[in-house]
């Protein structure tokens, strides 16, 4: 449907299946070049939770990487190149991706077929 063709906000109550909808869209968008998904989640706990969900619910053979924490401070351009080459779904916190996309420019928006903002209702104001 619509989520594959245009920007979409899925607004449902907790436990109503938003992440399931996300995995269905992920499966479709992984078929489109460049075949990679950026999954932005607000907390380290959710990184692990959403990565596990993607591993369980997305098509077989999907490679999911969890990106969060201080270890990411040591990553370089080649680290990101290897990550992009080796994984289909990158699940991480906003700061990790901000640094890679905006500050360092090691990653480009065009490296991804789909970007998912989990808990997007928290993305308001200047915070």
Please tell me about this protein's structure:
The protein is α/β, with parallel strands linked by helices and 127 residues long. Helices cover 39% and strands 13% of the residues. The protein has five helices and four strands, in the order ααβαβαβαβ. It has helices at 2-5, 18-29, 44-57, 77-86, 94-103, and strands at 37-40, 64-67, 89-92, 114-117. Strands 2-3-1-4 form a four-stranded parallel β-sheet. The radius of gyration is 14 Å and the shape is globular. The model has no long low-confidence stretch (mean pLDDT 91).
Rough outline: globular
Mean pLDDT over the full residue set: 91
Q: Tell me about the largest β-sheet.
A: 4 strands, parallel
Number of helices: 5
Lateral arrangement of strands in the main beta sheet: 2-3-1-4
List low-confidence stretches. none
Terminal CA distance: 32 Å
Radius of gyration: 14 Å
């Amino acid at each position: 449907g619509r989520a594959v063709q245009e920007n979409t906000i899925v607004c449902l109550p907790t436990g109503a299946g938003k992440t399931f909808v996300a995995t269905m869209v992920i499966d479709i968008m992984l078929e489109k070049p460049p075949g990679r998904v950026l999954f932005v989640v607000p907390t380290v706990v959710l990184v692990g939770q959403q990565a596990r969900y993607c591993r369980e619910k997305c098509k077989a053979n999907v490679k999911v990487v969890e990106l969060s924490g201080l270890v990411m401070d040591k990553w370089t351009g080649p680290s990101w190149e290897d990550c992009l080459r080796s994984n289909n779904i990158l699940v991480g916190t906003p700061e990790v991706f901000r640094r890679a996309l905006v500050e360092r420019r090691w990653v480009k928006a065009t490296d991804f077929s789909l970007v998912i903002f989990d808990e997007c209702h928290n993305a308001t104001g200047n915070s």
